[in-house]
């Protein structure tokens, strides 16, 4: 059995006063693999990611995460907080109280990992959407996150930047032994992952081979959108 990086068992969650969002949801993401999470709007994908990141607490069930988690949101403008690229990537290191030369080295290494070292002095406002998402990923890498949770990171990107980003995450997962869980509606992105989950009404109803899930969703598009 492959080592598991994200293990979820019988997870249940309801928002206060709301109906049940996750109902006995279970899944395993193998370490070092890139998995995607599919499901209709409102099926609980974002809620599940927030639970995995520890931003919400479940009412029942278990979550085991073996590694530091980095989160990438749909809209990078909700995530990048500093005026320049290097300052933003360094911002996540503040709590580690590292000497300045170590901070600089970590920032450079993380920016090189997403092929954006040449932009380190660029103001954030002068970046494209795809570059901003790569900066958000660099921030997670600088903090030494081993598990990336990405919630529709390509939703605001044009098709070229979309495929650049998904290919970049695939390369990072393979070259650095990271584990990634990526939420999407865009079936063409399934070509880049190792496997996928289909969430329906708060439960994983299908999992496995990306190509098989893709064919299922091409035939029944209302399960994905
Ligand atoms: N902050 C919140 N407070 C209350 N209800 C929420 C909140 N966020 C999401 N929900 C509800 O939880 C359900 C699942 O939402 P969500 O996890 O965002 O689904 P998805 O990401 O799959 O579209 C929806 O019915 C949504 O209205
Ligand atoms: Mg969502």
Task: Give a short synopsis of this structure.
By secondary structure, this protein is of the alpha/beta class. It contains 6 helices and 9 strands, in the order βββαββαααβαβββα.
Give a structural overview:
With 225 residues, the protein is α/β, with parallel strands linked by helices. The protein has 2 domains: 1-67 and 146-225, Rossmann fold (3-Layer(aba) Sandwich), CATH 3.40.50; 74-143, no CATH class. It is 32% helix and 27% strand. It is built from 6 helices and 9 strands; from the N terminus they run βββαββαααβαβββα. The protein has helices at residues 45-52, 85-91, 100-113, 129-142, 159-176, 210-219, and strands spanning 4-14, 20-30, 34-39, 60-65, 69-72, 147-151, 179-183, 195-200, 203-208. A 6-stranded mixed β-sheet has the order 5-6-7-3-8-9, with helices on both faces. Helix 2 packs parallel to helix 4, helix 3 (100-113) crosses helix 4 and helix 4 (129-142) runs parallel beside helix 5 (159-176). The model has no long low-confidence stretch (mean pLDDT 95). Magnesium ion (MG) is lined by residues 45-46, 151.
């Amino acid at each position: 059995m492959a080592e598991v990086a994200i293990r979820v068992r019988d997870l249940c969650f309801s928002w206060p006063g709301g109906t049940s969002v996750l109902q006995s949801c279970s899944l395993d993401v193998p370490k070092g693999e890139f998995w995607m999470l599919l499901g209709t709007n409102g099926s609980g994908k974002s809620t599940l990611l927030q639970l995995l990141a520890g931003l919400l607490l479940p009412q029942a069930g278990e979550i085991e995460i073996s590694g530091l988690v980095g989160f990438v949101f749909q809209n990078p403008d909700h995530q990048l907080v500093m005026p320049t690229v290097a300052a933003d990537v360094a911002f996540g290191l503040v709590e580690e109280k590292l000497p300045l030369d170590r901070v600089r080295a970590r920032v450079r290494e993380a920016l090189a990992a997403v092929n954006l070292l040449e932009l380190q002095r660029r103001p954030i406002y002068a970046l494209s959407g795809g570059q901003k998402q790569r900066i958000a990923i660099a921030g997670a890498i600088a903090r030494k996150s081993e598990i990336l949770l990405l919630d529709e990171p390509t939703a605001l990107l044009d098709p070229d930047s979309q495929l650049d980003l998904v290919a970049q995450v695939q390369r990072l997962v393979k070259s650095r032994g990271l584990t990634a869980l990526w939420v999407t509606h865009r079936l063409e992105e399934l070509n880049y992952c190792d496997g996928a989950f289909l969430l329906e009404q708060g439960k994983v109803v299908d999992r496995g081979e990306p190509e098989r899930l893709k064919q299922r969703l091409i035939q029944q598009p209302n399960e994905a959108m």
